[in-house]
Specification:
Layout: H1 2-19, H2 24-31, E1 32-33, E2 36-42, E3 48-52, H3 76-80, H4 84-90, E4 104-108, H5 120-129, E5 132-136, H6 137-145
Antiparallel strand pairs: 1-2, 2-3, 4-5
Helix pairs in contact: 1-2
Length: about 150
């Protein structure tokens, strides 16, 4: 907070010095009122008035007012819950030929490695929304070689 206070005070002094075509040191000397900055002037009735410049230290700090926000770690239920993909994979059924007696693999239409580096929770959400197909090894190999027939309805 002290560094921010110093920067804001310096910025104010530089702005006023430039406006009045003066130096920062001269402006600081004119505005100095103890350890604060203030402007003294006479009003219409001849009274001397003092207007203090607002400073960051005038803020009242209440860090508990809003609590701490931590969005770097996703909620536990996003990490621990089973997804539809895992359920489809555990069913051990090829979604193309319907074979149940062979080991299955998951084909990713768009792979996660193509995504840019993001936060963990974003990667998890992207993984859930990824286009995937559970295939047996034979169908998966045929898909990559381009010989897997298309069974979609026309």
């Amino acid at each position: 907070m002290h560094k921010l206070h110093f920067l804001s005070r310096g910025s104010l002094l530089k702005t006023l010095a430039h406006k009045h075509k003066s130096t920062v040191t001269k402006t600081a000397r004119v505005l100095k009122d103890g350890d604060r900055m203030a402007v003294r002037f006479e009003d219409d009735k001849g009274r001397t008035r003092l207007i203090r410049a607002w400073e960051l230290r005038d803020l009242t700090r209440s860090p508990q007012a809003f609590g701490m926000l931590d969005d770097s770690t996703p909620p536990w239920h996003l990490l621990k819950s089973r997804t539809e993909l895992i359920a489809r994979f555990n069913a051990k059924v090829c979604e193309h030929c319907g074979a149940t007696d062979r080991p299955v693999e998951v084909h990713h239409v768009r792979k996660l490695a193509d995504l840019e580096e993001e936060a963990l929770w974003r990667q998890i959400q992207s993984g859930r929304l990824r286009k995937t197909v559970v295939l047996c090894r034979a169908c998966h190999h045929a898909l990559h070689t381009g010989t897997l027939p298309d069974h979609r309805k026309s």
